[in-house]
Structure formats: C-alpha cells, structure tokens
Amino acid sequence: DQQVKQNSPSLSVQEGRISILNCDYTNSMFDYFLWYKKYPAEGPTFLISISSIKDKNEDGRFTVFLNKSAKHLSLHIVPSQPGDSAVYFCAASPIIQGAQKLVFGQGTRLTINP
Amino acid sequence: DVKVTQSSRYLVKRTGEKVFLECVQDMDHENMFWYRQDPGLGLRLIYFSYDVKMKEKGDIPEGYSVSREKKERFSLILESASTNQTSMYLCASSSSPHRQGKKSPLHFGNGTRLTVT
Asked: Across the interface, do A101 and B48 touch by the CB < 8 Å criterion?
C-alpha cells in the first residue's frame, strides 16, 4: 500500500524552463512534507520542506506547494539548470512523538537538457 | 555539517551468510534509521532507533535486526542473507523534534550497495 506516490518515473525539461514534480499522498495523518534530491552513488540530500499549516514554501529556485484538500504537493524548480538532473523523492511524516518516520515516494528522475 | 558514514560502499555476500552493515553519525543525533532503496519502490524503512538500546520496526523488518549500543552507531544485521535482500541500503540520522514541533530532516549516508549471490 503506497501511501506516498510519485506517478511520473521520469521527467525531461529544457534548461532555463520550469520543472514541476508531483506527489500525491493518501494518509491524512501526514503533517510534514519534504523533498530530497539524489545523485547516483550518493545518499539523498534534503532540499525543501513544508508544514501542513502552510500551502507554499520558497527557497531560492525551489518552491513547494501543498494542496491539503487534494492531498497533493508539487516541487517547482525555476529556472532549471543541468545540475538539477537527479532523482527527486517526495516524503511525508505522520504526526507522532519522538523519532520522525518518513514515508517516501518512488522517486522521479529529472533530466535537464541543455 | 552533519556526517553520516556507512562503512562499506559495496558488498558481495553469499546466500545464508550473516551480514553486518555499520553506520556512524557525528552530530550527536538521537534518531537513526535504516532504509533500503529499490527501483520503482523508493525508500522503505527497515528499522529505526530513537535512543541507545532502543529500536522500532519499520515497514519491512522481516529478515533484519539492528543494534544500537552507542548513540553514534547503528548497525543493520541480515541474519541469513537472501537474494531478495540485494539492494541499496541507506542509513540516516536526525535530531529529535523541537518542543514547538519543528521537525528536522533526515541526513543520509552515501549508501551501501549489497549484492547477495
């Protein structure tokens, strides 16, 4: 049972354009959402997060949007750069005490073409 | 800067062997995690620990155990390796949530690619 879904396994975007990566979730107990970026042979690195009390969070070229009623979030990268080519994972954290348990999506491979 | 170090980048083991994957973090984090990454399945949580000698099962604990004798070290153990445990294993750590509920992200190691033949 996939609680966090990234339905696009891959996405190809031209350099300078906007990249939009999508993520859907099913568990209404999730209250914190994150995006991670992963290069080959490296561990995932934290990119940006959003709490369920917000609907938008921006950090430089990266913006995450949260639509709680649709249980959908998206990551916008603008302008896209060749170094953005990587696998992007969406993750969600349920409301629990103590250690945060993240549930990850399947990942979307983003390729930025020059 | 947080550093999470996994002792091996690549491992090849035979079916039935006992396998130890080691992870060390240098930021005094309370929480440590073991995930495995498989194509089309994303990252799935195997076990996690929120304190020394404490452990909790994740979503796919079968065939695995863990050990946390010291705060900085979290070991994943495959009691009897099987071919379906061939995967990329990722260790991560995080600090405990702030009292106001602010959560800190996970910091990952570079992974261990395990092949079981």
From this structure: yes
